Amino acid sequence: MKVLFTFNIKEEQLKRLETEFADVEFSFTKKIEEVPLDNYEVIVTYGEDISTAVLDRASSLKWIMVASAGVEKMPLDEIAEKGIIMSNVRGIHKTPMAESVLAHILSLGRALPTMREHQLKKEWNKKARQTELRGATAIILGPGAIGSEIGRLLQAFGVHTIGCNSSGDRVPNMDETIPFEKLKDVLPKGDIVISVLPSTPKTKGMLDGSYFEAMKDSALFMNFGRGDLVKESTLLHALKHDEIGHAVLDVFEKEPLPAESELWELGNVTISPHVSSHSGKYVERALEFFTVNLSKWREGDRELVNLIDLEQGY
């Protein structure tokens, strides 16, 4: 059995794989377009290098292991047509992303950016406005693995958490859960509105201007899911017309964010260059998913952890 990685792993990580799976041949490349693919049954990838041309060349491919959560840039229809199974590492981002979200909330609430500005000016100024998290209400769009972990951390600070998903079914670490149809009804309660939604046909452009009009004018809006949830023009209008208080954006409609974007210049925006999921433990955690699934695969078990519904896109 042959497995191709399209990214490198550490030497000790490879040795562990070779020890545990002595009958598997592991290969590595960063230029998949230059490698003969006929004999590879499994490809492990971050996803963006899988094209229809790659699929046409990979005649033996049965399983694509995506070492990321988002798969919206992959040719899902073609993968489904060829009967290829696909899994991802959904949940791998929950720790670094939840910590990133909390870091931004605490930083803004305790006025750390303002204090830094005063420091650069060598200015002893005690007038920075600071707030507390306790007693606040956070609305979390997409309370899955990441959203649930954000909710757990916020609840530890005394924050009331409201999860918003397609079903309205209760989920861990949410004091309440509502369906998307009721989102506008609860937005006026939210001191913090956090999106960790994936990109799907249903979520693209979902937040139009009416949602921002429904938010508190002091609300902190945070997008850590996908940038196509809201158009940049909609965000700019909400920020420039004080429909919300501040936005922390880790994802954008167009990435990298163009230098000419007005978002760079607004004082009530914090820009993070899509790095909230970064962690020195990323590959290590991805390999944990892979080894569990590779064991199942070798035993003929195709009910892999984090199987992707290719029609739904997640």
TrEMBL record:
A Pfam cross-reference name: 2-Hacid_dh
D-isomer specific 2-hydroxyacid dehydrogenase catalytic domain span: 3-297
CDD domains the UniProt entry points to: 2-Hacid_dh_1 (cd05300)
Signal peptide range: none
Residue span, D-isomer specific 2-hydroxyacid dehydrogenase NAD-binding domain: 102-276
Keywords, sorted A to Z: NAD, Oxidoreductase
Entry's family note: Belongs to the D-isomer specific 2-hydroxyacid dehydrogenase family.
Protein name: D-2-hydroxyacid dehydrogenase
Organism annotation: Sporosarcina oncorhynchi
